[in-house]
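#onboarding

Welcome to the new folks! Below is a worked example of what a typical request in this channel looks like: someone posts a single protein sequence, and someone else replies with the predicted structure as tokens. Don't worry about understanding the tokens yet, we'll cover that in week two.

Example request:
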Amino acid sequence: MTTTKTAPPAMDLEAKLDLYRCQVELRQFEERAYDLFLENYVKGTSHLGIGQEAIAAGFAAAMKPTDWTFATYRGHNHTLARGVPMTPVLAELMGRTNGLMAGKGGSMHLTSVEHGVMGSYAIIGAHLPIACGAAWSAQYRGTDQVAVCFFGDGSVNIGAFHEALNFAAIWKLPVVFVCENNLWMEYTRTSEVTAVENPAADRAAAYGLESIIVDGNDVDAVFEVAATAIARARAGEGPSMIEAKTYRHGGHSRADPGKYRPDEEVAEWKAKDPIPRYHARLLDLGVAEEVLVKIVTEVAAAVDVATDEAKAGAIPGEDLLMKDVWADGGSSWRN
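Example response:
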């Protein structure tokens, strides 16, 4: 195993405070989403990324607005980190017309082309080849866009994972693959069904790629490897495979209490929570406690506003049933 040797890109204190704010926003948003689920406002299931915020925040900070994000069904963090406002995301979870997709997509299909969020994908591993297609289009058109594709450790034993890496390596596509390894494939420990210790990084060499492992709970470390890999892709040097070690604090979905995980394991990883960890680092850098408290307070107020705005959205009517189903927006041409 090797790790990136590139020095971290210069980041001033203001940028670090932005990283802190982003992580706090992601955490408070998902905590509110969970509360609304218990109150029966959120329709259908959803999958929270509480504990994994540093990955979304670090990569989003390293990306250009024209770059693309491809996420899994655990995509709230990545969608918000790319700049999508909280209100339409929360409203989408509630199935309201003021939602990101007018309430038709729900939690597992968040998409905002305007913000470079090219979808959350509920089928395991399905979006890796799609990210290659986007990267290939950027290469063909001669733009400097980069596709960043996030997936869980459960995707690494899927054929699409290997096909996508092979294709990207052969064509030197501007794509960065990011495995968010939270140790559990839904309800199964990844190590019990995977032949290598590091499920993504240990397979990189098979496609001529460097094995890169990063502490996914350290936003500065994530930003460093993200900036390096994205710069390589943008310069025409081909894809990268990054494995970010992290942990989801809750179960697989909100219907899952996660009791199959040992209590000591959960406690160990919660002690590595990326937000208190970064809070302490900022204090060490000389940031006053009241500055960080103010950020937390401001975010809490913004979440309250987004909640009220989302609740105020209308319930979709029958007129939306055929919208976005056919290319012309409706089915009348078939009759």
